């Protein structure tokens, strides 16, 4: 698949923003897309069963290097997405990205620039970004 730049994606989203041009529509559709993304993960656990969640308090042992600690922290997820659940989650994540790009377009923000700034922020924080 050819690489798509964030700018190309944002331009395309902007062209498709006809029916939901109002910032109120975009804000509420973004919230809905995020909720549907979470629902897709939950359904892979509760309806399909390809994923399982077993959560408990994270244990942070002392005198462990940050890189070792990174390996010890659990996502609480086991299993792998089956093809159907993968497709459903990808669709919902795509919709979420659509509305992020739409919000950027409406407010004259640059999606790509935001990604670069966040990337730089993460690089600066490094492993200390454990919140
Ligand atoms: Zn599944």
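^ structure tokens above, recovered residues below v
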């Amino acid at each position: 698949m050819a690489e798509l730049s964030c700018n190309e994606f944002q331009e395309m989203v902007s062209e498709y923003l006809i029916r939901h041009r109002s910032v109120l529509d975009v804000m509420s559709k973004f919230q809905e897309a995020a909720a549907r993304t979470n629902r897709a993960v939950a359904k892979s656990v509760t309806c399909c069963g390809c994923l399982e969640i077993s959560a408990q308090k994270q244990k942070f042992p002392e005198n462990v290097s940050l890189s070792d600690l990174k390996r010890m922290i659990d996502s609480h997820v086991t299993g792998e997405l089956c093809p159907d659940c993968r497709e459903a989650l990808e669709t919902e994540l795509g919709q979420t990205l659509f509305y992020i790009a739409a919000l950027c377009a409406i407010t004259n923000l640059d999606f790509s620039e935001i990604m670069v700034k966040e990337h730089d922020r993460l690089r600066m924080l490094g492993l200390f970004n454990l919140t």
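The chain is about 65% helix and 5% strand.
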